[in-house]
Every structure is written in C-alpha cells, then in structure tokens.
Amino acid sequence: MVGMALPEASTIWLDGALVPWHEARTHVLTHGLHYGTGVLEGTRVFETADGPAVFRLPEHLRRLERSAHMLRMRLPYSTDDLTKATAELVRANGHRSCYLRHFAFLGYGSMGIDMRHSPVTVSIASWEWQGQLPGADAGITLKTSSWRRNDPNAVPTAAKATGPYLNSVLARREANDAGYDEALLLGPDGSVSECTGENVFAVRDGVLRTPPASAGALEGITQDTVLTLARDLGLPVRVENLLRSDLYAADELFVCGTAAGVVAVRSLDDRELPAAPGPVTDRLRETYGAAVSGADPRYRRWLTLVE
C-alpha cells in the first residue's frame, strides 16, 4: 500500500488462535526479524454472488509450503489446517473482500545465524484492500532499476521468502523517488526479470511473452492465471527470455500480481507505449475480473468459498 495507513481489522490468526489485532505481537529478538528467515503469501478474497471467496488458495498454500521447504523450515500446520484457519479469519473479520497475508517465520528462541533452534510461528492477517499501485487505472510508469534481481544461485528466488524482498524494497524506493510508479528489475545477466511485486508481460503482434523463473522471476500465480486465460482466449503465449529492448519494441506492456491484478504500463524508461491499456491487456483484464468474481463459470474451480 503506497502512502496509506494499514486499515486494521479486528483479529489476526496466530499459531492456531484468533487474537485481537493489537495483541498479535512477537519478540524483538525474533530470528526472522534479524535474518529474514520467513516465507509469505499474498492472497485475495473477492466478493462473488455466492459470498466471499479466496482466489486460488490451494496454489498459494502449496507455494507457502514449498517456500518453507526450501528454507529448511517445517510448517507446524497442514494446508488443510491453514485453509480452515483462513476461512475462520475472514468470517471473524466480516470481510466481503480483502487482502490476506499468510506468514511463517522463525520466532524467538535463539539468536545467531544458526537457525536450527528457533520455533516456526505462523500467522494469517486480513485487511480491506485499497490498491497496490497508484494511478493503475490510467496505466503505470516503469523505470528500469539500477538494482539487479537476486541471482537464483545466491538466494532461492523460487521461494517467496522475506529476506530477498529487500531487493524489491530498494528498487521500488529508487523508482518512486525518481517519480515513477514501479521498478523493472533485470536479472544478473541483464535479461528482463520482473517488477518488485509483479510479473511483466510484453505484447507484440498479438503474441504474449513473459520471462521464465530462470531469469530470477517468481513463478507467479497471477502470471499462471493470465497464461491460462490467454490460451483459453486463443492468444499465443511464450515463456522465454526477454531483453529490455524487447519491452521497448512492444505494442503493449502490462504487469500482474495478486495485489495489483492486471495493470497496463503507460511508459517504460520514459518511452510511451503505443496503447495503454491496449486491446490485449483490456481483454485479459476483463477476463481476469470475471474469473476472480465468479462471473465466468469456467474458472469457479479457482475459488474457495468462505461461507
């Protein structure tokens, strides 16, 4: 959330119990606070005709589990446990739509690089969503960051882990200070990776292209959603390495992520796009909206009803 206070809810799920928002606390010597030993998921609840529904919750929880496995963290709750806890929290907070943050981290118990003696703490928080990117309706402005995306051989970029997010925080601050909405990060080899919290797509001659995980990009669940929607619409897609010049030459650019949705790019490095949003972006944004709201029956399998 940019420039806004977090809208508080009444409760947070913490280690198996609902606790008041301001009582969900942790010790200042928490291992994850000092060393970035945590994993997270951002998930959305959308209002549908059948009540609030979490979009692609099983995929998010499986990725949380995979991320924890990569960090040698054993989650004390199963995905079934966390599914039930998620619904319990949304009901308790009375949300019709909201953002969810699933978070597992090494807690208080030991201090130092050795992570073996710190317990795993798990929390789920929910709050009313007010948007991730400013000016998203008119298209956003991107700036290629001077920071490079983390090298997958240095940190596990396939894991959605807290420590590596410092990379995104610095890149976003640099872009915002320069007057841009978001930063584009290049991989260690100079190929296009992703933005600070979104995957990026380029459209040229009707073909969608997006970078692979080997470029340091997270295997985004919204990215996978867009690829599925595009194929169902008969649009050709390619997951392949891209150069920055490929984005400059694109007819359309857009970014996508759980928090952002599908958002058109108006300019990259002060180069205006021919259309923002373009016809392909518009079509995908509309189809995505129908999928998350339950309006398109083909994608109801992606919805986990809360009530």
Automatic annotation (TrEMBL):
One of the GO BP terms on file: amino acid biosynthetic process
What gene is this protein translated from? ilvE
The record, for InterPro entries, names: Aminotrans_IV, Aminotransferase-like, B_amino_transI, BCAT-like_C, BCAT-like_N, Class-IV_PLP-Dep_Aminotrnsfr
Task: Tell me which NCBIfam families the record gives.
Answer: ilvE_I, PRK06606.1
Q: Please report the organism this UniProt entry assigns to the protein.
A: Kitasatospora indigofera
Q: Is Ribonucleoprotein one of the keywords UniProt gives this record?
A: no
Question: Which superkingdom, per the lineage?
Answer: Bacteria
Keyword presence, Amino-acid biosynthesis = yes
The UniProt catalytic activity note for this protein reads: L-leucine + 2-oxoglutarate = 4-methyl-2-oxopentanoate + L-glutamate; L-valine + 2-oxoglutarate = 3-methyl-2-oxobutanoate + L-glutamate; L-isoleucine + 2-oxoglutarate = (S)-3-methyl-2-oxopentanoate + L-glutamate
Q: Which GO terms describe its molecular function?
A: branched-chain-amino-acid transaminase activity
User: Which key words are in the record?
Assistant: Amino-acid biosynthesis, Aminotransferase, Branched-chain amino acid biosynthesis, Pyridoxal phosphate, Transferase
Quote the Gene3D superfamilies the UniProt record gives: 3.30.470.10, D-amino Acid Aminotransferase, subunit A, domain 2 (3.20.10.10)
Per the entry, what this protein does is:
Acts on leucine, isoleucine and valine.
- Look up the record and name the pathway of this protein: Amino-acid biosynthesis; L-valine biosynthesis; L-valine from pyruvate: step 4/4; Amino-acid biosynthesis; L-leucine biosynthesis; L-leucine from 3-methyl-2-oxobutanoate: step 4/4; Amino-acid biosynthesis; L-isoleucine biosynthesis; L-isoleucine from 2-oxobutanoate: step 4/4
| Known EC number | 2.6.1.42
One matching Pfam family: Aminotran_4
Cite the CDD domains for this sequence: PLPDE_IV
Q: What is this protein called?
A: Branched-chain-amino-acid aminotransferase
